[in-house]
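Anyone opening a protein record will find just a pair of labelled lines. The record below illustrates this layout.
***
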Amino acid sequence: MAKRQNPAEAETPVAETPEETAARLKQGKGVPTPSRREQEAARKRPLVPTDRKEAARAARAKQAEAREKARIGMAAGDDRYLTARDRGPQRRYVRDYVDARFSIGEFLIPVMLIVIVLTFLPWPAMQVYGLFALWGFFLIAVIDCFVLGFLVRRRVGEKFGTTKVERGLRWYAAMRALQLRVMRLPKPQVKRGQYPS
């Protein structure tokens, strides 16, 4: 007759990593189901890490990696990383249309910087001419934004249907057109003249 083994003398199960547990569970039939004790031992984690500094360093590195991944994804126009303002096929279409177009408003910031420099010159006539030029340029940029809004609304209506046009697309297009091309986020995905179909 076989001698029964004392439970106290039995080997305690070795805790396996979650990866090993997942790999073992994926094998399917032909492998014995792990006991409850084995599963609980595999899930046990210390509440407080033994080396807090190392744990904090690892957490910071993980957060930095996630932020960098999100930044690259947003710059590339990946929908998973875009804000709610930039998400959706209509917004993508508007971005591509604005980026393919030459907009007067994108040069507004450089013109403002030139006018600021002119205000420091000792000639009052240059300052006055600079201010008039700035206001004239600003007016032309606003007119250009109105034209852009009309074109965007019409093009989106033709592509997606007039009843399904999202609200705020004109404003979205105008705000993107007033930014320098290199400063736009998400980054332009099309070249100039490469209008979306």
Notes: The CA atoms of residues 19 and 69 lie 24 Å apart. DSSP finds seven helices and no strands in the chain. The chain has a mean pLDDT of 84. The longest helix spans residues 124-160.
